[in-house]
Write a structure and sequence with these properties.
Pfam family, one: Alpha_L_fucos
Region (Disordered): 561-586
EC number: 3.2.1.51
Keywords: Glycosidase, Hydrolase, Signal
Protein name: alpha-L-fucosidase
Bound molecules: beta-L-fucopyranose
Radius of gyration: 26 Å
Length: 641
């Protein structure tokens, strides 16, 4: 870190939110007298508000939507950005159907194109055909979000592959001016997202070169974070050291179990990020993100690969239920709308969650506890639906038990526990037990309650009594809520076939030669079957495919394994050659797959020019990360649009 460290931020009160304006959601009552002292790190005011957001949407929409890429190079013409039927209310309604409480929009992705009419660059919507250059996607989505009662936040890529000054001070001045514009033009922001992907090759005003930067020294994150907070005191910043929230360490929507909101005071380490570190000094909670589709941007060839409602429930269980916030990406299509199938999935998922948590079956129970700190901290406080009150025990009593005597016939399979977060994460380990048919049974044991812990039982139980047993804690607990629910399964939504006629199905293709057996699994359109081969050393891994008939091919696609096995990695780049007769070959292009190792997204690679192709040969000279084996799930191809 630079001289201006996270600790400096804390002592100046910026990171703790002391400078923040009051948040409506947290009109804070005075602490009752005799309250326990906080233990360990505690959240700032803006972090406390953020912890209650639970679910919000990411919207990736930009030039990439129109080029089919995941990372634009920065040389794309603004002419490409032209949604034919942009409907911000439809996008926001889709998010709301899924139970999202906010929207975070990509104001600028790595390619540098700005979705708002800024005077800071020509590479922006002012020069796009959309609304004759008078459009403002950021403003239109912001207003739609507010109309629907959703909070609004922004993603601004620090890496800018368009800007000529990227890598030099001139770009930092520009980036700071962008932050100020976005923080002052669009009302209150709840989140400001700085992407971790930084530096590499790009257009850079025509230089077309590789620019590597030392991110902490170049960006001076604490200064940028302070700049956001100066204008937006309640916006939680994501993700460098010093920010309010951290990355969960994967883009697959899986938080660790447990997922502690605390982290050491050093730059982010991916292995620590997934589970956090118990008792560490920084309150730096995880946000768990993934996309409803394989890619972050919309691609028609992924229409049949949208996550199912049941898969979104699993995402909920692996994020929200582990005390983190769920950040679900919903990419608008080239019309500027969320595709119908994605909307149906969101509605099914949202309805299931709403129905599951509609009736708290713990209501009406009589609460008692082995130890109570005093009347203001009675056991009944866990049932009063007030997150500002809590049950607590006297100092020194760290393993008390709380029992709910339930009304008859309460059958439940979801148990939701919440700590009173303002006093820190106090419970290290706990169990939930139930008295069923006259016998006490242990239903579950976990580390960490935190913002919330939702336990899903394999089947509903009908219990006479339920108890929370604190097994280990460094201080007396402070439990604000205990609730019981009966889950409602989502309605299944049948996936559509791909709607894009330019996408070729590889199912009939044939592997002519390959550097290892089993390459045909890359042609089955099933991402769960993976071709795994020894990583290339001197000779590249290669595969030659016969498409069985000649096509006017515009490019190929490659999907990495979505859940790579240990010690495997996708290819770093490719070399493509084509042939009409299987004998004479011509080069069709070579390059790197951007972000493949981390996003694990389908790569769509246009050839230098469309060409007649019967045979396609792909060679891969290296893995994207050091690994003993290379893994590829699918290969496909597309014709001219
Ligand atoms: C990553 C980016 O590189 C992806 O394109 C996407 O924006 C994701 C949310 O973050 O780091």
């Amino acid at each position: 870190m630079n001289d201006f460290t996270r600790r400096t931020l804390i002592s100046s009160g910026i990171a703790t939110g002391l400078a923040a304006t009051a948040a409506p959601a947290l009109a804070k009552p005075a602490a009752p007298s005799g309250a326990p002292k906080p233990w360990g790190a505690t959240p700032s005011k803006r972090q406390l508000v953020w912890h209650r957001r639970e679910r919000y949407a990411f919207i990736h929409f930009s030039i990439n939507t129109f080029t089919g890429r995941e990372w634009g190079y920065g040389d794309e013409s603004p002419d490409l950005f032209n949604p034919t039927d942009f409907d911000p209310d439809q996008i926001v309604a889709a998010a709301k159907a899924g139970g999202m409480t906010g929207i975070v929009l990509t104001a600028k992705h790595h390619d540098g194109f700005c979705l708002w009419p800024t005077k800071l660059t020509e590479h922006c919507i002012r020069n796009a055909p959309y609304k004759g250059g008078k459009g403002d996607i950021v403003g239109e989505i912001e207003r739609a979000a507010r109309r629907a009662g959703l909070a609004f936040g922004l993603y601004l890529s620090p890496w800018d592959r368009n800007h000529p000054e990227y890598g030099r001070q001139g770009y930092i001045d520009y980036f700071r001016a962008q932050i100020v514009e976005l923080c002052t033009r669009y009302g209150e922001l709840f989140e400001f997202w700085f992407d971790g992907a930084n530096g590499g090759d790009g257009y850079y005003g025509g230089a077309r070169e590789t620019r590597k930067i030392d991110a902490p020294a170049y960006y001076k994150w604490p200064e940028l974070i302070a700049l956001v907070h100066k204008h937006q005191p309640m916006a939680c910043t994501f993700d460098p050291l010093g920010a309010d929230i951290r990355w969960v360490g994967n883009e697959d929507g899986v938080a660790g179990d447990p997922c502690w909101p605390t982290m050491p005071n050093h730059p982010y380490v991916q292995s620590e990020g997934n589970s956090g570190v118990r008792g560490a000094p920084l309150w730096w909670p995880a946000e768990t993100n993934t996309s409803i589709r394989p890619g972050w941007f919309y691609h028609a060839d992924e229409d049949a690969k949208v996550k199912s409602p049941a898969r979104l429930i699993r995402f909920f269980d692996e994020s929200v239920a582990r005390g983190t916030n769920m950040h679900l990406n919903l990419p608008p299509d080239r019309r500027g709308r969320i595709a119908d199938h994605d909307v149906a999935v969101l509605k099914s998922f949202g309805d299931a969650i709403r129905a599951s948590f509609a009736t708290d079956l713990a209501q009406g129970a009589v609460a008692s506890a082995s130890h109570v700190r005093g009347p203001a901290f009675a056991a009944s406080k866990v049932l009063d639906n007030d997150r500002e009150t809590y049950w607590s025990a006297p100092d020194g009593v760290t393993t008390p038990t709380l029992t709910l005597d339930l009304p008859p016939n309460r059958s439940f399979d979801l148990i939701r526990l919440r700590e009173y977060l303002a006093l820190g994460v106090r419970v290290t380990r706990f169990a939930v037990e139930a008295e069923i048919g006259g016998r006490w049974q242990r239903l579950a044991t976990h580390d960490c309650i935190g913002a919330q812990r939702i336990i899903r039982l394999p089947a509903p139980v009908t219990a006479r009594r339920v108890r929370l047993v604190i097994l280990e804690a460094p201080a007396c607990p402070a439990i604000s809520e205990v609730s019981l629910f009966r889950s409602v399964a989502p309605i299944a939504v049948a996936p559509p076939a791909s709607s894009d006629p330019t996408i070729l199905s590889p199912r009939n293709w044939r592997v002519v030669t390959s550097s290892a057996p089993g390459a045909n699994v890359m042609l089955d359109n099933d991402v769960s079957t993976v071709w795994t081969v020894p990583a290339p050393t001197a000779t590249p891994v290669s595969v030659t495919l016969d498409l069985r008939e000649a096509f006017d091919l515009a490019g190929f696609s490659l999907t990495p394994a979505r859940h790579p096995e240990k010690d495997t990695a996708p290819p770093r780049g490719y070399r493509a050659e084509t042939s009409t007769d299987g004998t004479t070959w011509t080069a069709a292009g070579e390059g790197e797959f951007p972000n493949i190792a981390y996003a694990l997204a389908t790569q769509r690679v246009p050839f230098t020019a469309p060409r007649p192709v019967r045979y396609l040969r792909l060679s891969f000279a290296a893995t994207a990360l050091p690994a003993a084996r290379m893994a590829i799930a699918d290969i496909g191809a597309f014709t001219r649009g």
